[in-house]
């Protein structure tokens, strides 16, 4: 037998209050006495009442949904790069605790960015997080200009400044290189990340700063945070400087490619060439040899990103930047 869906009126009748009072309780208003609030909440549980989200949004001007925008191709997001699922896990976990919904969106093309901008401008979400931003992407600033709360993973490149949550990329890279210097390595190369991304720029800066401290020359190749680019960059470095004795790769996936290229070239790790990565993804523990790397707190990064956006959307003043610490994890590759 079909059961009629409980209505707000039936909740009010069961609770012995007016419809307006029941509505205020359901929509989270604080302007309700404790006895009335408890009665309405009890009636909601007993009747199995579920608010009409569309109607509720009209009243509260909130959707209880938040977007995580990744300006990447789907093939990159759903790859073996564990940064993306780690961030999503952190964001979704924190939003679930707050009883909010995550909307995951990807856009690498201008058309994709326009689509996301229209979606957000239509107020289908209460705020937007952006991660893995390339260059001076116009989307975050465009959303913020019309009053949509926006928090970024890492600072934005270009003239616009928005709240962000990042990690100590430069400090982590410098710590990796200092470790290589202390272990007696003197011909230290890097496979840097993309130079249109803050992570790539800052990790290269940290590498250069540590080499300048040690009065050692820099040897730089650039990849795109994939293992294929790491292998290709390492082959190029070996052609240019066959006597390299250490490599700092700006991501663990690129370090996996570096290890493969060194093995194919007959170089032993760490006896001939020491290798350090960045991220400390699960794969780092299972390379041969296990990878020394800089750990960034990826899941915690996602949680803090969501926390800052929840606070901003609630009208709170938030810190303009949060920079999480990194940690050098010593294993057998260096």
UniProtKB/TrEMBL annotation:
<dbReference type="GO" id="GO:0000976">
    <property type="term" value="F:transcription cis-regulatory region binding"/>
</dbReference>
<dbReference type="InterPro" id="IPR010982">
    <property type="entry name" value="Lambda_DNA-bd_dom_sf"/>
</dbReference>
<keyword id="KW-0804">Transcription</keyword>
<dbReference type="Pfam" id="PF00356">
    <property type="entry name" value="LacI"/>
</dbReference>
<dbReference type="Pfam" id="PF13377">
    <property type="entry name" value="Peripla_BP_3"/>
</dbReference>
<keyword id="KW-0238">DNA-binding</keyword>
<protein>
    <submittedName>
        <fullName>Periplasmic binding protein/LacI transcriptional regulator</fullName>
    </submittedName>
</protein>
<keyword id="KW-0805">Transcription regulation</keyword>
<dbReference type="InterPro" id="IPR000843">
    <property type="entry name" value="HTH_LacI"/>
</dbReference>
<feature type="domain" description="HTH lacI-type">
    <location>
        <begin position="6"/>
        <end position="60"/>
    </location>
</feature>
<dbReference type="InterPro" id="IPR028082">
    <property type="entry name" value="Peripla_BP_I"/>
</dbReference>
<dbReference type="InterPro" id="IPR046335">
    <property type="entry name" value="LacI/GalR-like_sensor"/>
</dbReference>
<dbReference type="GO" id="GO:0003700">
    <property type="term" value="F:DNA-binding transcription factor activity"/>
</dbReference>
């Amino acid at each position: 037998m079909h059961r009629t869906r409980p209505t707000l009126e039936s909740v009010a009748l069961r609770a012995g209050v007016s419809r307006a009072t029941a509505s205020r309780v359901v929509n989270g208003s604080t302007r309700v006495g404790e006895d009335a609030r408890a009665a309405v909440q009890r009636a909601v549980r007993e009747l199995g009442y579920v608010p009409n989200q569309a109607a509720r949004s009209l009243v509260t001007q909130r959707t209880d949904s938040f977007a995580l925008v990744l300006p990447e191709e789907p093939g990159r997001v759903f790859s073996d790069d564990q940064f993306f699922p780690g961030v999503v896990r952190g964001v979704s976990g924190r939003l679930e605790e707050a009883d909010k919904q995550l909307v995951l969106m990807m856009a690498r093309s201008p058309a994709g960015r326009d689509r996301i901008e229209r979606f957000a401008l239509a107020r289908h979400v209460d705020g937007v997080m952006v991660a893995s931003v390339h260059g001076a992407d116009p989307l975050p600033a465009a959303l913020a200009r019309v009053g949509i709360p926006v928090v970024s993973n890492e600072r934005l490149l270009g003239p616009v400044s928005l709240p962000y949550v990042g990690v100590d990329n430069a400090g982590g890279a410098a710590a990796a290189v200092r470790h290589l210097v202390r272990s007696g390595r003197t011909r230290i190369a890097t496979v840097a990340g993309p130079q249109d991304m803050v992570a790539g720029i800052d990790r290269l800066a940290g590498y250069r700063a540590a080499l300048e401290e040690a009065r050692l020359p820099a040897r730089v190749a650039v990849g795109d945070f994939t293992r294929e680019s790491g292998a290709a960059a390492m082959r190029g470095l070996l052609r240019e400087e066959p006597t390299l004795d250490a490599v700092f790769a700006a991501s663990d996936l690129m370090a996996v490619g570096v290890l493969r290229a060194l093995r194919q070239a007959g170089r032993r790790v760490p006896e001939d060439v020491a290798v350090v990565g960045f991220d400390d993804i699960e794969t780092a523990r299972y390379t041969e040899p296990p990878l020394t790397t800089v750990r960034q707190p990826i899941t915690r990064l996602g949680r803090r990103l969501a926390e800052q956006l929840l606070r901003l959307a609630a009208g709170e003043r938030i810190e303009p930047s949060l920079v999480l610490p990194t940690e050098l994890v010593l294993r057998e590759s260096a």
